[in-house]
């Protein structure tokens, strides 16, 4: 057990600080980094009792992320930290390195009307972990055997090391925050009722589950390293649409259009596609694509068109029936009157019978017109189509 301060020279101190700085830049795991710092510091400072703690200002707690101690076990998370007799709290509040001897620790605890936290030591040094004026914790060394283990000048060394540790903790916190944001964003995208994909240079890089479902695929791996043209009926169609998308993205950064995309089973998905690009100079480098299934909308549009056509036919049919019924009734009436005065075997009687028969046929046609319930057409000579009154009408009993 060491009972006196370490002797060190400036060269060794610089080497240790360089080691710690290098470790901060190349080590991404905090526990591994703290081990390296502890080992490096041991070359120039007694670190038999050493800890790194982080402070949560929101819930007023402190957690000991790294702990080496000859006597005491790790204290765990200390809540209501401001009301305790912890001298670590004094360093955090003071925002500067502090040194305490045994009597200082006992007097501080007495003033707080609380027992000391941990076993009282002979000497205790602490430095704040500070990031842009905000203290996020502290680093400390202490000795249970000798009050001369450390010198006041050691506070400067400890403070230098604390700055490296604070930088590493800030980086790790930023990484965690980014990762959490990524998780939240991915959950939002996964729960979206819209198909969403990230495309790099026309190659799928990420798709959400709704995208897989809309296009009838089994899993996301079906899109891995596949090109966007897999969703089009032909290369020509893809090139045509691609030119439109490229020009629109280059001009506006966004594009929106209705497309018929091809599903895995070869059927058509009527889709509204929205695309967004952040680089107008290379609009297809990275684009976000969202796909909405508009099949129901398409069906409703078709039904609306059919209804409008049917309405036009009904109006036309009503007008025709109205205009034809009275002349037809007159023709039938006069034909019957004339036939009453003719011999059944006369030519006139037979001609009037034909007129009466054809008039009745016209009457049947007008009745069919009045019974039209759907719009249907048939081919007619001359490369045209006409309304199929026989297939469009439903006989009303």
From TrEMBL:
ATP-binding among keywords: no
EC number: 2.7.13.3
A single GO molecular function term of this UniProt record: phosphorelay sensor kinase activity
SUPFAM superfamilies in alphabetical order: GAF domain-like, Homodimeric domain of signal transducing histidine kinase, PYP-like sensor domain (PAS domain)
Annotated keywords: Kinase, Phosphoprotein, Transferase
Catalytic activity entry: ATP + protein L-histidine = ADP + protein N-phospho-L-histidine
Domain of life: Bacteria
CDD domains the UniProt entry points to: HisKA
Signal transduction histidine kinase dimerisation/phosphoacceptor domain sequence ranges: 312-378
SMART domains given in the database record: GAF, HisKA
Any Pfam family the entry gives: GAF_2
Sequence ranges assigned to domain GAF in this UniProt record: 29-179
InterPro entries (UniProt xref): GAF (IPR003018), GAF-like_dom_sf (IPR029016), HisK_dim/P_dom (IPR003661), HisK_dim/P_sf (IPR036097), PAS (IPR000014), PAS-like_dom_sf (IPR035965), Sensor_kinase/Photoreceptor (IPR052162)
Descriptive protein name: histidine kinase
Organism the protein comes from: Desulforapulum autotrophicum (strain ATCC 43914 / DSM 3382 / VKM B-1955 / HRM2)
């Amino acid at each position: 057990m060491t009972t006196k301060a370490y002797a060190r020279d400036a060269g060794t101190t610089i080497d240790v600080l360089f080691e710690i700085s290098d470790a901060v830049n190349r080590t991404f795991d905090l526990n591994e980094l703290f081990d390296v710092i502890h080992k490096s510091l041991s070359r120039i400072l007694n670190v038999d009792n050493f800890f790194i703690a982080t402070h949560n200002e929101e819930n007023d707690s402190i957690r000991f992320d790294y702990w080496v101690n000859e006597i005491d076990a790790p204290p765990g998370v200390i809540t209501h930290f401001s009301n305790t007799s912890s001298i670590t709290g004094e360093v955090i509040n003071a925002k500067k390195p502090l040194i305490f001897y045994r009597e200082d620790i006992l007097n501080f605890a007495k003033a707080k009307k609380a027992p000391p936290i941990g076993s009282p030591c002979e000497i205790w040094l602490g430095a704040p972990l500070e990031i842009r004026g905000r203290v996020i914790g502290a680093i400390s060394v202490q000795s249970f055997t000798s009050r001369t283990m450390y010198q006041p000048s050691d506070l400067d060394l400890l403070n230098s090391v604390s700055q490296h540790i604070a930088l590493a903790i800030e980086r790790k916190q930023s990484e965690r925050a980014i990762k959490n944001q990524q998780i939240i964003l991915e959950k939002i995208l996964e729960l979206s009722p819209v198909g969403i994909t990230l495309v790099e240079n026309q190659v799928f890089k990420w798709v959400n589950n709704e995208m897989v479902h809309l296009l009838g695929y089994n899993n996301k791996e079906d899109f891995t390293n596949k090109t966007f043209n897999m969703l089009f009926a032909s290369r020509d169609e893809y090139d045509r649409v691609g030119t439109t998308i490229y020009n629109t993205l280059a001009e506006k950064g966004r594009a929106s259009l209705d497309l018929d995309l091809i599903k895995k089973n070869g059927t058509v998905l009527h889709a509204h596609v929205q695309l967004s690009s952040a680089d107008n100079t290379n609009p297809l480098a990275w684009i976000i694509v969202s796909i909405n299934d508009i099949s129901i909308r398409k069906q409703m549009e078709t039904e609306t068109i059919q209804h409008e056509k049917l309405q036009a036919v009904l109006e036309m049919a009503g007008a025709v029936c109205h205009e034809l019924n009275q002349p037809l009734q007159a023709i039938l009436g006069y034909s019957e009157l004339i036939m009453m005065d003719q011999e059944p075997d006369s030519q006139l009687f037979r001609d009037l019978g034909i007129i009466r028969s054809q008039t009745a046929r016209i009457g049947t046609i007008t009745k069919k017109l009045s019974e039209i319930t759907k719009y249907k057409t048939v081919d007619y000579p001359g490369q045209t189509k006409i309304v199929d009154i026989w297939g469009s009408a439903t006989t009303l009993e």
